[in-house]
Amino acid sequence: MHVTFRQLRLFLALADTGSVSAAARAMHVTQPTASMQLREVADAVGVPIYEVVARRVHLTQAGRELARTARAMVDEWASFAQRIDSMKGLTRGRLRVAVVSTAKYFVPRLLGTFCAVHPDIDISLEVLNRDGVVARLRENLDDLYVMSMPPDDVDLDDEVFMPNPLVAIAPAAHPLAARRRPFALEALRDERFIHREPGSGTRMATDAHFRAHGFAPRVRLELGSNEAIREAVAGGLGIAVLSVHALGHRGTRDGVAVLPVRGFPIRSAWHLVRPRGKRLSPIAEVFRRHLAEQADARAAR
């Protein structure tokens, strides 16, 4: 089987964009050239590697296997280039990180301090809901992944690097917001709750906590973003459970208040994960250490 490295990169561009024309643009070749090169790849493999349905490219099973193999080869080559640059005293390359949406409140700051030390590194940051990050993790599309509830059906290298406490919030004018002494979760029995969508890390931790305490919340809304939930709570639509990272330092200035509910904050943590056995590039390894150091400094503060 004879396929060039450039043809593999073109095929990966096709897999990522879902379009021959978009792949051609990404690789700076004409569409006829891209089509010819992709036909040569398919001929070399010997079975169809993609099909076009409703003007959209869909990889076949063989195509998905080829994409995984090609991505591993391209990643290994990039890692080799970084090691050579390191021998030359250079630090440059590309770092790919995927994070769940709640992590967007602190990961960009950590990336900022990292880039201040390594200005020649390009960063690709994907911010998605948990399902989206898990999908990228399964496909091994990034160097590292940040989430609070890693999947238990994927073999992972998993590091806990920072706590992620979950708190109950209410409108600032809510009578319970004036309480200073902790009160039982049962006091919220008649309240309406605003939840994150099913499958999110916050929702999974909240549901587990409520089940453990025999508490069945009356759910009014399910929303897919922390900002929407915070605004809904501020608007008086109900009670919610959110990560303290989603509140920042705003507190009641955003019209919400943290409730002193007994058993809260719910203990959760941020995990830095990657597929088991995945060899990190030099840049990813440096960022992994940077993340741990910054998390320790943040905890000390």
Separation of termini?
57 Å
Question: What's the arrangement of strands in the largest beta sheet?
Answer: 4-3-5-12-6
The top-level CATH class of the largest domain is: Alpha Beta
Mean pLDDT: 87
CATH architectural type of the largest domain:
3-Layer(aba) Sandwich
How would you classify the helix and strand content by structural class?
A: alpha/beta
Rg (CA only): 23 Å
Care to count the β-strands? 12
Low-confidence stretches: none
CATH topology of the largest domain: D-Maltodextrin-Binding Protein, domain 2
Q: Can you put this structure into words, describing what you see?
A:
The protein starts with a helix and ends with a helix. It has 3 domains: 1-89, Orthogonal Bundle (Arc Repressor Mutant, subunit A), CATH 1.10.10.10; 91-163 and 269-300, Periplasmic binding protein-like II (D-Maltodextrin-Binding Protein, domain 2, 3-Layer(aba) Sandwich), CATH 3.40.190; 166-258, 3-Layer(aba) Sandwich (D-Maltodextrin-Binding Protein, domain 2). The strands form 3 sheets. The protein has a 5-stranded mixed beta sheet with strand order 4-3-5-12-6. The protein has a 5-stranded mixed beta sheet with strand order 9-8-10-7-11, sandwiched between helices. The protein has a two-stranded antiparallel ribbon with strand order 1-2. It has 301 residues and is α/β, with parallel strands linked by helices. The longest helix is centred in the N-terminal third of the chain and has 27 residues, at 61-87. It is elongated, with a radius of gyration of 23 Å. α5 (107-117) links the parallel β3 (93-100) and β4 (121-128). It is 43% helix and 23% strand. The chain has helices at 5-17, 20-27, 31-45, 61-87, 107-117, 130-139, 201-212, 226-234, 244-247, 282-300; strands at 50-53, 56-59, 93-100, 121-128, 144-147, 156-163, 166-171, 192-196, 218-223, 239-243, 256-258, 269-275.
